[in-house]
Design goal:
Largest interface: A-B, 27 and 28 residues
Number of strands of chain B: 5
Oligomer: heterodimer
Helix content of chain B: 25-40%
CATH class of the largest domain in chain B: Alpha Beta
Largest sheet of chain B: 5 strands, mixed
CATH topology of one domain in chain A: Enolase-like, domain 1
Radius of gyration of chain A: 18 Å
CATH superfamily of one domain in chain A: CO dehydrogenase flavoprotein, C-terminal domain
Strand order of the largest sheet of chain B: 2-1-5-3-4
Number of strands of chain A: 14
CATH superfamily of the largest domain in chain B: Beta-grasp domain
CATH topology of the largest domain in chain B: Ubiquitin-like (UB roll)
Structural class of chain B: alpha+beta
Structural class of chain A: alpha+beta
Helix content of chain A: 25-40%
Distance between the termini of chain A: 48 Å
Shape of chain A: globular
Distance between the termini of chain B: 42 Å
């Protein structure tokens, strides 16, 4: 690791001030991506700003028809939360399937979505449930948050504080994990919400995306059979040593059907 | 920078660099070399320790992040010279071959049974996703954790 300064501000205002003052600073949440990145010298920030000292960023609570989950809520906490398990069991299950226990004991919701790894699980839930990302500056709808490979709509100096997930009528997340990394080769989040059907796909392409054809088919009838014959275009999907684009396209349809079946279960 | 943390029941103040990993502080700063660093890429789990009761990979945590925390390493398990029941179970069931991954396996198992005192074999195998044994000695590791959990339940 290159050397850097370490700061542990006690408030969001202090963290923002540090971000404004230091030329290249990185925010540290759970560190499960940032620390390995630093160790491989893929990043050389002047400073690391640890958010753990800021109170109230890990809260999990139900607010009316939505679940508000703090940016620093750890995957293990979301997975075990009775509030999440009761309101959106698919979200608790998704959190329980991220990485491994040690990663889930450190990794956070905010860290995951801000990094926007193309194969991360959480972006599928945020987009699939039509969640709202709250930051130090504003509220960003999920449809506008994830903008590309490791890219989000966040401005420099902006800090994610929580995510508000509307509680769906039913939902499920099914993924085909890479057997070594546990990242999703393809993961599909399906939700029947008060504003319609949403289907979000992670792992398949450079950035999480919605699958309009599946949403329209499921809007007619929310059943696995509605997706029979669903053809997913492999154009623009990812190809690597683990899977080619055509195989990923095939997996999207398979995972989508399984997710619908699970949501009905 | 100076940090203070509790390691195996002892308050420790250490002078560290900002980029010091917890695994480096434990091994090089405090001479607790029972915590092993194998892959050093956050995948193998040999460096697993408990931070505030939760199993974490100490190679993927800045020492500074552990300031004020309570850390337990493999050296902190045995009380008064007697092996912890999970350590004894690994001994009895021969839950190791070369032994390099063992400290991480034991710490991970201790965290598992703290939250799930009677885990099924499937639950044990699922929990061990974060711990890799390159001797592939998983069969006896799983048996050892079953036995360790049973010993802890009757303790």
């Amino acid at each position: 690791m290159y050397s850097f300064a370490y700061h542990c501000p006690a408030s969001l205002a202090d963290a923002k001030a540090l971000l404004g003052r230091i030329e290249e600073a990185r925010l540290l949440a759970g560190g499960q991506t940032l620390i390995p990145t630093l160790k491989q010298r893929l990043a050389s920030p002047d400073a690391v700003i640890d958010l753990k000292g800021i109170g109230g960023l890990a809260a999990i609570e139900r607010r009316g028809d939505a679940l508000a989950i703090g940016a620093l809520a750890k995957h293990a906490a979301v997975a075990a939360s009775p509030v999440v398990r009761q309101a959106i069991p698919a979200l608790a299950g998704l959190a329980d399937g991220i990485g491994d226990p040690q990663v889930r004991n450190r990794g956070t919701l905010g860290g995951s979505i801000v990094n926007n790894d193309p194969a991360a699980d959480y972006p599928a839930a945020v987009l699939g449930l039509g969640a709202t990302v709250h930051t130090s500056e504003r509220a960003i709808p999920a449809d506008g948050f994830f903008t590309g490979l490791f890219e989000t709509d966040l401005e420099p100096g902006e800090i994610v504080t929580s995510v508000s997930f509307p509680i769906p009528h039913r939902a499920a997340y099914v993924k085909f994990p890479n057997p070594a990394s546990r990242y999703a080769m393809v993961g599909v989040f399906v939700a029947e919400t008060s504003s319609g059907i949403r289907v979000a796909v992670t792992g398949a392409g450079p950035c999480v995306f919605r699958l309009a054809a599946a949403e329209q088919a499921l809007a007619r009838s929310f059943a696995p059979a509605s997706l029979d014959g669903l053809r997913v275009d492999s154009q623009g999907l990812s190809s690597d040593i683990h899977a080619g684009a055509a195989y990923r396209a095939h997996l999207v349809a398979v995972m989508a059907r399984r997710a619908v079946l699970q949501a009905l279960g | 920078m100076d940090i203070t943390l509790a390691v195996n029941g002892r308050q420790v103040t250490a002078s560290i660099e900002a980029n010091t990993l917890l695994s480096a502080l434990l091994r090089e700063g405090l001479a607790l070399t029972g915590t092993h660093v194998a892959c050093d890429t956050s995948q193998c789990g040999a460096c697993t320790v408990l931070v505030d009761g939760a199993s974490v990979k100490s190679c993927t945590l800045l020492a500074a992040e552990a300031a004020g925390a309570t850390v337990v390493t493999i050296e902190g398990l045995a009380a008064d010279g007697a092996l912890h029941p999970m350590q004894q179970a690994f001994h009895d069931e021969h839950g190791l071959q070369c032994g390099f991954c063992t400290p991480g396996m034991v710490m991970s198992a201790v965290d598992l049974v703290a939250g799930n005192p009677d885990p099924s074999e499937a639950e044990i195998r699922a929990w061990l996703k974060g711990n890799i044994c390159r001797c592939t000695g998983y069969q006896n590791i799983v048996k050892a954790i079953c036995a360790g959990a049973a010993a802890l339940r009757s303790a």
